[in-house]
Design goal:
alpha+beta, five-stranded mixed beta barrel, two-stranded antiparallel ribbon, 5 helices, 9 strands, DUF7019
Length: 220
C-alpha cells in the first residue's frame, strides 16, 4: 500500500471544488436510533457530515478531476497539472511576512513554481500566515509575495519602454525558483494552473509554469 506524507493540503480549494463536483458531499446524513423499553419508546436523531477528513475529501476531488481529464502534465498542463520531482521549498521571511510558501524546480526545459498560503502547510502555527488579507493562492497576491524579495522587485521597477506584464510575471517565477536555498526533496503534487508561457529570456523553447497546489506530499 502506498502512503503519502503530506506537506500541504489546501482545504479551501478542495472544499470549493468538491461542492461543485459532488454537491451531495456537502450535505448531512441523519441516523435515527429507536429504543423500545416497553413503557418508553424514544427516538434520537444524529446528524453527521460526510467526508469530514481532509484527505478523503481531497481524494474524491482528485478522482473526479482525473475522470474529467482535467489534470495535465508539466509539459502540457490542463486546468490542473501533476508532477513528481525534486523541489526546493520554504516560506521566505521578509520582515514579519511569512504568508507565502513556495516550491520550485526545473524539470527538463520547464521551470515549475508552486505557491500558496503558509496556513495550508501541515503543522504550521496558527499565526504563521499573518500577512495580507488576500490568500497567496491567487495570482495577484502570489506575485505580490514574490515581489517582497528585493531581487524580484527590481524586475518590476526597472525602466522598460514597453513592459510586458505576463513576461515580468514569468521572469519573477523563474527568479524565485532559482533563488531557493536548501536541499531538494522529491515531492508529488496536483496544482491549479495560474500562469504558463515561454521563458522570455531563454530563447531555447524553455517554459515557465506557475500553479497553486491542491496538495504536496513527500514521495519516497
Amino acid at each position: 500500500m502506498a502512503y503519502r506524507f503530506y506537506l500541504y493540503i489546501s482545504d479551501v480549494k478542495v472544499d470549493m471544488l468538491l461542492s461543485q463536483l459532488d454537491p451531495s458531499s456537502t450535505g448531512t446524513r441523519t441516523t435515527e436510533v429507536g429504543v423500545d423499553l416497553k413503557v418508553v419508546n424514544g427516538r434520537r436523531s444524529v446528524e453527521t457530515s460526510p467526508d469530514t477528513d481532509p484527505v478523503s475529501r481531497l481524494d474524491r476531488v482528485l478522482k473526479r478531476l482525473e475522470k474529467d481529464g482535467a489534470i495535465g502534465t508539466l509539459e502540457e498542463p490542463g486546468p490542473f497539472f501533476r508532477g513528481r520531482l525534486p523541489m526546493r521549498w520554504g516560506a521566505p521571511a521578509h520582515g514579519d511576512d511569512m504568508s507565502l510558501v513556495f516550491f520550485g524546480a526545473r524539470a527538463g526545459r520547464t521551470v515549475v513554481g508552486l505557491g500558496g498560503s503558509t496556513r495550508h502547510v501541515l503543522g504550521s502555527s496558527a499565526d504563521a500566515a499573518d500577512g495580507p488579507p488576500l490568500t497567496r493562492s491567487l495570482l495577484p497576491s502570489l506575485l505580490d509575495g514574490l515581489r517582497l524579495d528585493p531581487r524580484i522587485a527590481a524586475l518590476f521597477t526597472a525602466t522598460d519602454p514597453s513592459p510586458d506584464p505576463d513576461g515580468l510575471a514569468l521572469r519573477a517565477v523563474r527568479e524565485a525558483t532559482d533563488g531557493l536555498q536548501g536541499p531538494a526533496q522529491t515531492v508529488e503534487f496536483v496544482a491549479k494552473r495560474l500562469l504558463h508561457g515561454p521563458d522570455p529570456e531563454a530563447g531555447d523553447g524553455s517554459a515557465v509554469l506557475l500553479g497553486s497546489p491542491l496538495y504536496v506530499a513527500l514521495a519516497d
